[in-house]
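Hey team,

Filing this mostly as a record. A colleague (T.K.) asked me to run one chain through the structure pipeline before their review meeting, and I want the input and output archived in the tracker in case anyone asks later how it was produced. No errors, nothing strange. Just documentation.

Input sequence:
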Amino acid sequence: MRPIESRSVAEQVTVELRRSILCGDLQPGREFSLREIAGMLNVSFIPVRDALRNLESEGLVITRPGRSALVAPLDLDDLHAIYRLRRTIEPEIASRACLLLADGELDRLEQLAAGFGNEQLGMDAIYDAHHEFHMALLAPAASAWDVRLLSTLWRAAERYIRIGFGALDPDPQEHHRREEAHETLIDVFRRRDPDAAAQAVRDHLERNERIALRALGDGEPADVPAPQPARTAKDERRSRR
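Output structure:
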C-alpha cells in the first residue's frame, strides 16, 4: 500500500484501494478493518468509509456490519456475467466507432498497441495503457453512460485478467501476442466495416475471458499456458466451514 498524504480526499483513497485490489496487493477474500486501512493510508475513517462504498458499488469490496470489510472473492458466475455484459455492449459500440475514428487517432492507437510488447513495462503501466487504448477505440461512439458502465465493467474484469495474464507474463512471447492482438483490432477498424469491427472486439473479449477462466481453474483453452489457480468465492466459503 502506498501512503496517502493527510490532505487526501475520499476519491484518492478510492483510487489507491482500487489499485491495491486490482493488482492483487489486497487479495480476494482478504478481511480488513477501517482502522487498518486508515492507518496504512494515513487518513481518517471518513474517507475510507466513503471509498469502501464506492468500491462496493463496483463489486470489488463487501462491507460488513461495524467497521470491517472484505475484498470480494473471485467468482465464476460474476466473471461470466461481466463478460456477457461486455459482449453485449462493446461490439455494438465498436461497429459505430470504426466509422468515426480519424485516421490520425488510429495511427496513435497503433503506436500505443506497439508498446504492449515492451517487456519492461510494469503491470500498472500496462493496464493504464490498456484502459486508455480500449476507451479511445470506442470513444467516438460511446455516450457518457456507456463510459460509466464500461469503466465499471473493465475494473471488475481487470482483477481476473491480471491473474490470468500475470501467469503468462514470464513468457516473453506473451508480450508480443498482446501487442499483436491489439494491432489486429486496429487493422480491422481501419477497414471501416462495422460487422468486422464488432466481431473483432467479440473475439478479443472471448479470448480474454478464456484466459481468466483458466486462471480460476475452469476450462482448458489450448492456446494459452496454464496459470496458477486463484482463490475463488467457493474457496472462501470452504475456508469458513
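Quick notes for T.K.: The chain has a mean pLDDT of 82. The longest strand covers residues 61-64.
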